[in-house]
């Protein structure tokens, strides 16, 4: 009877398995189609719609020398740009996974559960590090930290600098590409809050809150990566727990200050869709309710997470106590359970 050779079957083209195995390559080809479209005059107008940021407005600054400054507002064409940068996010995700995370996984030999969580934390750590650094640079360049009144002063903030608008486009593109099953609720909340702030022209407040949140989440996922490499190193989780609670309080404080007091006392009240003004009491209450409910949900998940960690730690300590071997009393030759030790038995027999 002949030995049957092992053959690796290639899944049928365009089958579900084929798409899963080659999704990064497929997406790269789609992105290249848009880039190649820039080379031809017939397709360049269509390709520009996806690749470049839309709705450019040139404003001349007042002063001795008038210099033109480019600003941008949002519109329906941003959906096309968001789609393209969602493709870019998929490609970057595959690059980080193949050239960084997979190599570490092969060296560490993680279990199936740890392997999944390590990949998740590795991907999100890279994203949070990049996004928090980029967002902080925008905050500093726009002087939003040194002048908190600018969070609501001059609302509606329909015009944005290029960096700020591109930042929100990339944020939406990234969270649209995520497909972590156990994090679908969080992904939905990210999309609702970012898109809502972007449409309602609350981009300045959203940028501050995103940077705060991303810094805390970065600490959590970095602590989890360190924990996977050495389970005795858990100090990062303690620092994250403190900062997590402080971030929730600061988020609520800034939201109430900006929406509840700043916009409520603003002179520009009313609803004007063409001007991008949504400063009416119904919208303000809806925004505050959404933020408060989200913070309450996150605190509830945080408390459950901490209680589960404490229970697991208590069970581990109890198991360690039960596994302590019975000690031998060398003075009277009797074990801790009252029986003669082997040495005492030998002396009695002799």
TrEMBL record:
Q: Set out the biological process GO terms recorded for this chain's protein.
A: protein insertion into ER membrane; SRP-dependent cotranslational protein targeting to membrane, translocation
**May I have one GO cellular component term?**
endoplasmic reticulum membrane
Region annotated Disordered sits at 323-350
Give UniProt keywords alphabetically: Endoplasmic reticulum, Membrane, Protein transport, Translocation, Transmembrane, Transmembrane helix, Transport
Predominant cellular place of this UniProt entry's protein: endoplasmic reticulum
InterPro entries xrefs? TLC-dom, Translocation_assoc_membrane
PROSITE patterns documented for this protein: TLC
Pfam families associated with the record: TRAM_LAG1_CLN8
Please give the superkingdom of this protein's source. Answer: Eukaryota
Give the membrane topology, semicolon-separated if more than one. Multi-pass membrane protein
Residue ranges spanning the membrane: these are 83-101, 122-140, 160-177, 184-200, 206-227, 239-261, 281-303
Q: Where is the composition biased (Polar residues)?
A: 329-339
For whether the record's keyword set contains Repressor, the answer is: no
Residue stretches making up the TLC domain: 116-313
Localization, UniProt:
Endoplasmic reticulum membrane
Does Plastid appear among the keywords?
A: no
Family membership: Belongs to the TRAM family.
Q: Can you say what this protein is called? A: Translocating chain-associated membrane protein 1-like 1
């Amino acid at each position: 009877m002949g030995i049957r050779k092992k053959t690796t079957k290639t899944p049928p083209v365009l089958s579900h398995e084929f798409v899963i195995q080659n999704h990064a390559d497929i997406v790269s080809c789609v992105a290249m189609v848009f880039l190649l479209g820039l080379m031809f005059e017939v397709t360049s107008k269509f390709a520009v719609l996806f690749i470049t940021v839309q709705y450019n407005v040139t404003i001349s600054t007042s002063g001795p020398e008038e210099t033109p400054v480019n600003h941008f507002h949002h519109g329906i064409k941003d959906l096309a740009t968001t789609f393209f940068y969602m493709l870019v996010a998929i490609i970057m995700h595959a690059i980080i996974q193949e050239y960084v995370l997979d190599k570490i996984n092969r060296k560490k030999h993680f279990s199936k559960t740890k392997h999944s969580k390590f990949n998740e934390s590795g991907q999100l750590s890279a994203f949070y590090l990049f996004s928090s650094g980029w967002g902080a640079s925008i905050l500093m360049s726009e002087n939003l930290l040194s002048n908190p009144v600018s969070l609501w002063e001059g609302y509606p903030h329909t015009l944005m600098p290029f960096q700020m608008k591109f930042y929100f486009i990339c944020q939406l593109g990234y969270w649209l590409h995520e497909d972590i099953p156990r994090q679908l609720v969080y992904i939905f909340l990210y999309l609702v809050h970012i898109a809502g702030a972007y449409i309602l022209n609350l981009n300045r407040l959203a940028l501050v809150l995103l940077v705060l949140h991303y810094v805390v989440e970065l600490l959590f996922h970095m602590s989890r990566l360190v924990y996977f490499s050495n389970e005795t190193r858990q100090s990062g989780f303690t620092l994250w727990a403190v900062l997590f609670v402080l971030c929730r309080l600061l988020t609520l404080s800034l939201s109430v200050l900006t929406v509840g007091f700043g916009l409520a006392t603003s002179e520009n009240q009313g609803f004007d869709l063409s001007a991008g003004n949504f400063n009416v009491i119904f919208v303000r209450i809806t925004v505050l309710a959404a933020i408060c409910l989200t913070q309450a949900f996150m605190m509830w998940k945080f408390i459950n997470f901490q209680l589960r960690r404490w229970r697991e730690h208590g069970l581990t300590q109890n198991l360690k106590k039960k596994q302590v071997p019975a000690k031998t009393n060398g003075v009277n030759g009797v074990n801790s359970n009252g029986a003669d030790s082997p040495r005492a038995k030998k002396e009695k027999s002799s």
